[in-house]
Design brief:
This protein is mainly α and 70 residues long. It has four helices and two strands; from the N terminus they run H-H-H-E-E-H. It has a two-stranded antiparallel ribbon. A hairpin with a 6-residue loop joins strand 1 and strand 2. Helix 1 packs across helix 3. The N and C termini lie far apart (30 Å).
């Protein structure tokens, strides 16, 4: 999978609930590590990620803006 497609899948996964970066790595363990890092970098560059204050887990920014973060 290319980084752009994986970035979309990561965002979809984050909409299901907050995750640590390690959880993302485990969820997409079938993908090459380099591609996961490229996708993650694209999401960070696009400012598409936010974090929970209490846990430090990542969420998709839209989820935080809608007020549905956990």
């Amino acid at each position: 999978m290319n980084p752009e497609a994986l970035a979309d899948k990561i965002l979809e996964r984050l909409k299901d609930g907050p995750l640590h970066f390690e959880d993302i790595l485990l969820h997409f363990k079938g993908e090459p590590y380099r591609v996961v890092l490229q996708a993650w970098g694209q999401l960070r560059e696009a400012d598409a990620l936010d974090r929970e204050i209490e846990t430090g887990r990542y969420v998709a920014k839209q989820v935080v803006e809608e007020g549905t973060s956990r």
